[in-house]
Amino acid sequence: MNVNLVAKSVVTAIAASVMGGAMAADVVQKNDQWFKDGQATLQQKLNTPRINGMAKNVILFVGDGNGVTSNTAIRIYKGQKEGGTGEEYVLSYEQFPNLALAKTYNTNAQTPDSAGTASAFLTGVKTKAGVLSISENVDRGDCQAALKNEVTTILELAEQAGKSSGVITTARITHATPAAAYAHSADRNYEDDSALSDDQKAAGCKDIASQAITSNVDVLFGGGRRHFIPKTMKDGEGKSGKRTDGRDLTKEWVGQYKNASYIWNQAGFDALNTEKTGPVLGLFNSSHMEYEADRAKDKGGEPSLAEMTGKAIDILDNNKKGYFLLVESGRIDHAHHEGNAARALEDGSAFADAVQAAMDKTYQEDTLIVVTADHSHTLTMQGYAKRGNPILGLSVGVDGKGHPSDKPNLADDGKPYTTLSYINGPGAVKGERENLANVDVTDLDYIQQALLPMSSESHAGEDVAIYARGPKAWLMEGAVEQNYIFHVMGYAAGLVK
Amino acid sequence: MRVLLAFLCLSLGSVAIAAEPLHFRDLYGRGGDYSVIAKEKQGQKIRVRGYMAPPLKAQAAFFVLTKRPMSYCPFCESEADWPTDIMLVKTDEMVDVVPYNQPIYVTGQLEIGTQVDPDTGFLSKVRLVHAEFETAQ
Ligand SMILES: [Zn+2]
């Protein structure tokens, strides 16, 4: 019965599309621009063929903490920065033809962390919060057990297939999301050897930074220098290292591979010869790289996420067999944790620019690009602001006739409020809510008001979007488990059979 | 806090209004160096919005002002990083501590140059002296 019903509806749909033109009634709104745009989108989608070849290259973009609300706010922010009203703006990856929703929970957590989620989309299996690319039956921190329960990552599979690989982030390169691609660890905090006990070291457990330099990755760009150099050593910007084993991993890196280079500032980055260089380790800050909004003030100078993405592709595509590249905008998440929407939106805009850089440098016929977030945040976009109202501003609505007002909307306490706020975080204060009438809420350092007082705003547990373009991108559809992302990438590139 | 505020309104009200509002971050240039603005405003009264970092000691006539609340994420960080762009605020009275996430406005005389506090050993590069603060209402 069910089968028949489905069959019947398919037949009806085919009949409708075949006879579409002749059967269609003329509608009075047909000359309305919205109508015409809708029709144009429909035609474009009808004419979009499924790309079914093999993905020679796979690029996975992760906007850390860039949930659906965050993404909408970034869209409006970027659109307004470029002179529009904002709502209608299309972010680079929003042009992708295929979309799915990912369920982000970890095996032991309803609301996940970045370690468990990155492990899921990079290895194809979900695991516990806080652990990197090991199976779920290991307790967090049990590094001996972890040694026997490592699971293979898509980056390792790409390397085994003779492809090149790269990992880029604006956070520390040893931070959860990037580390899950090349390292296996019972705890995301084992970023250098000082975090491991003597017993753990004796048992053969390895810190994340030391795994980075032995993992066969060809391009590593990010922050986190302190985890690669000894405590007794100062880096190019005058900051001390954290390693207690005396190893200088930047030096080991250069000595270990043919034509390998280590760079730490904009000048070194600009001087890279993408056609001739061997493996590159670029560590542009002691800890995380700067927020995009603060990047110009960095001492040694730092490349943008888009610049890093472009250069990495130029290096990786020298390999005729292709590459796997992970690009993380790591600090959308950090700004949200600070309750500081302005920096999150600025980093989000830079994320969209990085995806655009990859779109410009690749062909959709041979390169699968997947864009997603690992988890969401408690950011909410609320109130009845008028069209084009500054996304970081006070909520200003429309009057009774629907015309734009110039007076802020007031809550029942008689005070104005911002469109963006958080459910929890540092923006929550005891007692009376601050009157925002005379506060520059669009300021870069402004902390949005919040309900629950927490020193760090938290992750949120709702689904995140997955956008895809390229070979087998059409497999990204429906509401899927987050670990499914790995399976599409692996299938598209012929890495998993 | 209320005492301080009343004091501010009564005796320093006019100074507070006269003090030029500045963005905290504008005092720092590239790599934590002093900005042109910081050099220009040296010795002058300025007013900034910021947050009081949790105090180094309970009873003091100073506190550290941060441009954003000193929060850190237990999931992201194994330890909190002290930001480079902070300001030492020296008050004439004992500080009535407010929560680290309460926005405050601080008015004081801008002082720049590296200084190590003889009592606490605290190193500062930018200070507001003879400062008063009020919570944002
Ligand atoms: Zn986070």
List the helices and strands and how they pair.
The complex is a heterodimer of chains A (497) and B (137).
Chain A (H helix, E strand, L loop, with lengths): L1 H17 L1 H4 L9 H14 L10 E7 L4 H14 L16 E6 L10 H10 L19 H5 L6 H7 L3 E9 L3 H7 L15 H5 L5 H5 L6 E5 L25 H8 L4 E3 L2 H5 L9 E4 L21 H12 L6 E7 L2 H6 L3 H21 L5 E7 L2 E2 L1 E3 L14 E3 L5 E5 L11 E6 L24 E4 L5 E2 L3 E6 L8 E4 L2 H9 L5
Parallel strand pairs in A: 1-7, 1-8, 2-17, 3-4, 3-7, 4-6, 5-6, 13-14
Antiparallel strand pairs in A: 2-16, 8-16, 9-15, 10-13, 11-12
Helix pairs in contact in A: 4-15, 5-8, 5-16, 13-15
Chain B lengths: L1 H17 L1 E3 L13 H6 L3 E8 L9 E5 L19 E6 L12 E13 L6 E13 L2
Parallel strand pairs in B: 1-2, 4-6
Antiparallel strand pairs in B: 2-3, 2-5, 3-4, 5-6
The structure holds zinc ion (ZN).
Zinc ion (ZN) sits at the interface of chains A and B.
Main location (chain A): membrane
InterPro entries (chain A): Alkaline_phosphatase, Alkaline_phosphatase_core_sf
Organism (chain A): Marinomonas profundimaris
